[in-house]
Amino acid sequence: MNYYKMNYFKNFYYIILDFCIKTKYFVYFNLFLNVIFINYLYYTFWGTTSNKLILLLNYTINLNGCILIKLIQWLNNHVSFIKNDANKNTAIIKLFSKYYENCSIHNLKYTKNLFFEEFGYVFDDVFTLDETFSVKSGSIAQVYKAYFKNTINTINDCCIENPIAIKVVHPEIEYQMLFPIYFINIYKFFVTNFTFLKTYDTIINYDSFFINLRNQINMVNEYKNNEYFYNKYIANDVIIIPKPLFKSKSFLIMEYIEGEFLEKMDVSIYKKKILMSFLSMFIKDSYMFGKYIHCDLHDANWKVLKEKNDKYHIDADADADASFTYKIIIYDFGYIIENNLNEQIKNLIYYLDINNIYEIGKILFEHIENLKLKDSNSLEFLDYKEVLIRKFVDFNERCYPYTDSNIYACYNFCHSYGYKLKNNLLDLFVSSMLLDKYFKKYLFFSYNSNNTIEFDDEKYYKNVYDTNLFYINLCEKYDIFHNVKDFLYSKYINNTFFIEKINYNNNYFNSLNVNDTFDI
């Protein structure tokens, strides 16, 4: 009898606790909505934002926890891609951008208790934390730097001398998802079913966002993604993927590999160009030949590894920096999508490069969800398709390559006309645009200062040709990305289109020198 009483009170306790936590986040989320509304009213009446109200908004976001921060980051990315010089959200966007690595840090005691609950081992018997390391907290989880103790051999056969990263999901994540999901579903219902509210609809796929979010809060999923990329690039000498070691629902233990932000590195522009070329080819390889795509390569999720090259001997007059090797590190494999568009992406990349707006429009049409006509065999449908593609051609201005990305034009075209893209292509566009500023600066910077709107065919195509020839040369030099190299050669170098467009020089390949004392 005592057992049943204890079990009854225990269940009753958890019911009350569950109710209290849900009530807490209900209050927090409503507070957040009210503060947003007050900010909106203030801006409407005064034409500017209030710093105090923005700080209050900041406070309510922190109260709601990591899921709302993740949602804000995601929406911030989408809003920032919309070309609107009069964007009323500029001040808020700048404030929200700091949340990538400045989220709240949960208590170490919680981490230790959760580790024992999920693994059955005492945290301090397995790990020694690096006390000099500042815990890094993201929207979903936080990361500790630690070392294995000798007892780790009872869990996994790992080297105990190397540092490791312990990634643990924040507490109460499931509760923090409830009310944002309810609110978004209510919002979708109104903007979809009431004609006068349709102007407030967006091209954003919220359902997909929350599905991906649920996958991200389960470290078992991230372990599988991490393992896939680790195995795929283990033999690649310029891309480093931290090795995943073991996992549970809330924990992912992996290699710890420290990197530097590219912008903070004291190296030449030329070396940064090579590093960005490595990252660009990693993305091309994932898009065109990979089974999965990394969709969250914001600034904190890729860095540069700088290592001492013991094989290099420095002469007195030599470049001392040449004694180091440089590689790209890829982090955080939570937001990964399955890639079922390999062939379409190959075509899309090529048409983007040669600025073939009509063919881009055809691909875009095939991935719009809310087409008014569905019968693809009817003449009316074919006319409808042609009108939409021509509308896209008129919308898209011709420009020098990559200075005003056609991907932005695709996104803004859909936003302007209310077309909803299928999620796989939308995710691909967003992941590409996250890195656009670096590609413009280091790979295609030669036209950034050119203010002319006159389109110069020869300069345009020569730039595209030269860039891809540079990629091929890097692939040859470092024996990397063989599939990408073959694709670039067949699609660009050995292509009569480019031979006819530019002053083709068969010896030009040899003139692109990537030696410049930069060895990996």
UniProtKB/TrEMBL annotation:
What residues does the ABC1 atypical kinase-like domain cover? 104-340
Swiss-Prot/TrEMBL keywords: Membrane, Transmembrane, Transmembrane helix
The cross-references to Pfam families, in alphabetical order and at most eight, read:
ABC1
Segments spanning the bilayer are 25-43
- Identify the SUPFAM superfamilies for this entry: Protein kinase-like (PK-like) (SSF56112)
* UniProt cross-references to InterPro entries, sorted A to Z: ABC1_dom, ADCK_kinase, Kinase-like_dom_sf
Would you tell me the protein name for this molecule? ABC1 atypical kinase-like domain-containing protein
